[in-house]
Specification:
Blueprint (H helix, E strand, L loop, with lengths): L5 E2 L3 E4 L6 H8 L14 H18 L3 E6 L5 E10 L8 E8 L8 H16 L4 E7 L3 H9 L3 E7 L7 H4 E8 L3
Antiparallel strand pairs: 1-2, 2-3, 3-4, 4-5, 6-8, 7-8
Helix pairs in contact: 1-2
Length: 179
């Protein structure tokens, strides 16, 4: 078994390795996966993201972790926590997010992984609050937010999505640490 930072029933969470770049590029260049984002990503953008996540983990002990299925050790996507600092009245914040390869959709992995990430953030890191943001049209992610016990707080126009009218209107969900 690999050295995971934490696990859930079916998933292992770890920091990124340079050898993960091909999987990340396959994920982020998939039009269906990136349906609720402004565009797919280039390999260079994926490398920058991966480096940001690696550095964030070394600094804070969290990131959007690479997630593997425990039984097969196949990469399924990423799930975890990240710092958000874009201009919004709730930032700076710690955000929970996920992105899975289509082969792993509709199996409960996003919900399972997000619950495990919340536990990690609250129990291990002692975070006070975790937020989640998605465009209003992203019903699958909003469904996960509800399933993991987050509460809708607000709707807002995302400043980084101002040039994308179909994505700009977003929801903000929040969960406080009660542990």
């Amino acid at each position: 078994m690999k050295n995971y930072i934490f696990t859930s029933e079916r998933l292992g969470f770890r920091n990124w390795k340079n050898s993960d770049i091909d999987f990340l590029f396959e994920l982020n260049s998939n039009k269906e996966v990136m349906k609720y984002f402004p565009s797919t990503q280039t390999k260079e953008q994926c490398e920058a993201f991966m480096n940001r996540m690696q550095n964030l983990y070394y600094k804070t002990k969290f990131c959007y972790f690479l997630v593997e299925e425990l039984t097969t050790q196949k990469s399924i996507g990423f799930i975890g926590l990240s710092e958000q600092t874009y201009k919004a009245d709730f930032n700076p914040s710690i955000d929970i997010g996920w992105r899975l390869h289509p082969d792993f959709w509709n199996k409960g992995y996003a919900t399972e992984g997000a619950k495990a990430s919340l536990l990690y953030g609250f129990q291990q890191l002692k975070l006070k609050e975790i937020v989640s943001v998605a465009p209003i049209i992203n019903a699958p992610s909003i469904s996960v937010m509800n399933k993991i016990g987050m509460e809708k707080v607000n709707e807002f126009n995302h400043p980084l999505l101002a040039e994308f009218p179909n994505l700009e209107k977003c929801v903000l969900y929040r969960k406080s640490n009660t542990m």
